[in-house]
Design a protein that fits this description.
The chain is α/β, with parallel strands linked by helices. The chain has 6 helices and 5 strands; from the N terminus they run E-H-E-H-E-H-E-H-E-H-H. Helix content is 50%, strand content 16%. It has a 5-stranded parallel beta sheet with strand order 2-1-3-4-5, with helices on both faces. 34% of the residues are buried.
Length: 164
């Protein structure tokens, strides 16, 4: 089982690193690629073909500004694509990540991109894990244990707040 992580710029690394950390926690193998959809479309197309032939099952793609990377990838594959809109800290008139968010959620028909919140690479990884859990029992077991642990922690925190 594999997840491919794409991001369009090395400046997105700090956000996308969280994705890799969450996948690692669940023992999910992954590969990361820094490829711009605008600057290197041929290399991106070839890489998509390569990861498909290697058995990749889910793609996570983070991008900022016009954020074409997830949509471009989705147009080239039938694998599920999870998009992460990234807030860019640059001088190009960034709109706080709203530009990237809208670019992803407003994809045309026939080019689906599941989209998480701005900079929320954590949820993108968890969504990929949910997808893989439908096929792999070991991932499903780990995910159920993870959710139960989170639920218990939340209940404990609520009780402590009510008592103080």
């Amino acid at each position: 089982m594999k997840v491919a992580i794409f991001f369009g710029s090395i400046s997105d690394k700090s956000i996308m690193k969280i994705t890799a950390e969450v996948l690692h926690t669940f023992n999910i193998s992954y590969k990361s690629y820094v490829i711009s959809a605008h600057r290197l479309p041929d290399i991106l197309s070839n890489t998509i073909k390569k990861i498909e032939s290697e058995g990749t099952e889910v793609i996570i793609a983070g991008a900022g500004l016009s954020a074409h990377l997830p949509g471009f990838i989705s147009s080239k594959t039938i694998l599920p694509v999870i998009g992460i809109p990234i807030h860019c800290n640059n001088n190009y008139g960034s709109l706080g990540g709203i530009d990237a968010l809208l670019s992803m959620v407003q994809m045309p028909k026939d080019v689906p991109v599941a989209t998480v919140g701005i900079n929320n690479s954590y949820n993108a990884a968890l969504f990929a894990i949910h997808i893989l859990a439908t096929k792999y029992k070991d991932v499903r077991k780990l995910l159920l244990e993870f959710k139960m642990k989170k639920k218990k922690k939340f209940i404990t925190e609520i009780k402590q707040r009510l008592l103080s």
